Amino acid sequence: MRLRLHSTIICATAKKVAPATCLQNNFYATITALTYYIGMMKGYDTGKDQVAEKAILVGTILGRSSRIEAENSLDELARLTETAGGVEAERFLQSRNKPDGTYFVGKGLVEQIKTAVEEHEASLVVFDDPLSPNQLRNLSKNLDIRVIDRPMLILDIFAMHARTAESRLQVELAQMEYLLPRLAGLWEHFSRQRGGIGTKGPGETQLEVDRRRVGKKIAHLKKKLKKIESQRQTQRKGRQRFFKIALVGYTNAGKSTLFNRLTRSDVMEEDKLFSTLDSTTRVISVEYPQDIVITDTVGFIEKLPHQLVASFKSTLEEVNLADLILLIADCSDPFKDRKIEVVISVLKEIGAGQVPRITIYNKTDLLDGSGPPPLPSNGIIPLSALKNTGLNRLKAEIMSRLS
After folding, report:
1. DSSP H helical segments within 238-368, as ranges?
2. Over the chain, what is the mean pLDDT?
3. For residue 88, what pLDDT is reported?
4. DSSP H/E element including 158
């Protein structure tokens, strides 16, 4: 098994880069580290098989948030960790009015986490909330272990699942932009790992040089993506006469399964988070009086890194230009309303908040029968894409939107 959880780059790369190399050229080591981080998405071998990493998960109940919502978020974090190749060893959940500026959580909890790391021989601590560069640096220094946050974990998973040249560039850009303000903390962690005279990390001047060069790399990626975007614009011009439908939804809501049923395609279907990243488009020229083009898009998730939303802007533009959005939700999920809110929030962020939409309550086959099944009402259509039930009602609703 390849090493998957490699978001804290310098720590993971320190074993691969010779100290002399780092001393001779600090920026070379930085780029080597960044390259290692994005290497998995390009299929590079990290050179060492490893078992699943034991991870300590940390969540918070902030302000008026409810415990049940925080626990559900931690459950989702555990699934993300599993998707990335790790396994939950223990979890902590702390109630706070606001995050601590130094560690995000209280100093007492930090000591408990340190004890848990030793007891479980864990190699990773994952926070469910975004950490500032200072918090990340302070936690790594105090715990003396790799520390990542939810955005870094999501970026890692996106890197693993990116397949096309465009999605790889998009993920790489998001990674670079997220890591750029964290270079100082990463260099400090690297210096501690190596130790010895002359390995105290780059001076502030060198760090600024590194930042400028990474900034140039970001500009280069944006230029390449802009070129791909121009090609997308050409493709879109050829589809102007079509009625355009975009499928959106929380990750693992069953978008790809519904897409396959509507288009008779064979897009990969897996019960995993972010199993597909690349948007897929198909044309339907039968069953409807007008040609239809349907696009399956990347799934959304709570606390999605804004760098990813920005990087995938060209892909998500298909949603913004759609004539109709099918918003797919897992109706067996007790938190479906919250997840629908997350999806609608992202739609507004990309400028697609006013596009007409139909809400699909998918996975009716998973309902346990404890309550009445959802009924069609107010733009909501219940169905099971997996069992192929309820699709005629959806097709009839799409037909009515064409007239």
Report:
1. 255-263, 306-311, 313-320, 336-349
2. 78
3. 96
4. helix 150-161
Amino acid identity for residue 7 in this structure: S
Q: Look at 161 and 5; give whichever has higher pLDDT.
A: 161
Q: Are the beta carbons of 357 and 326 closer than 8 angstroms?
A: yes
Is residue 290 within 8 A of residue 243, CB to CB? The reply is yes
Average pLDDT score over residue span 359-369: 90
384: left (phi over 0), alpha (psi -120 to 50) or beta: beta
**CA dihedral for 290, 296, 297, 301, sign (positive or negative):** positive
Per-residue model confidence (pLDDT) at position 160:
81
CA distances from residue 329 to 259, 288, 293, 302, 343 in whole angstroms, order as listed? 14, 25, 21, 14, 9
Q: How many helices (H) and strands (E) does the chain have?
A: 15, 10
Q: Which domains does the chain have, with CATH numbers?
A: 9-220 (3.40.50.11060), 238-402 (3.40.50.300)
**SS3 category, 153:** helix
**pLDDT given at position 281:** 85
pLDDT at 109 over 90: yes
Tell the residue number behind the tokens 């019960």, with chain if given: 271
Q: Which helix (H) or strand (E) holds 108?
A: helix 107-120
pTM for the model stands at: 0.76
Q: For residue 233, what are its two tokens?
A: 């614009």
Q: How confident is the model at residue 64 (pLDDT cuts 50, 70, 90)?
A: confident
Query: Distance (Å, rounded) from C-alpha 33 to C-alpha 8?
Result: 9
The encoded tokens of residue 251 equal: 């990750």
Predicted pLDDT at 211: 76
* Residue type at position 34: L
Cβ atoms of 56 and 121 within 8 Å: the answer is: no
| Amino acid symbol at 120 | H
List the structure tokens of 218.
Answer: 């970001």
pLDDT tens per residue, range 139-162: 988 999 889 999 889 888 888 877
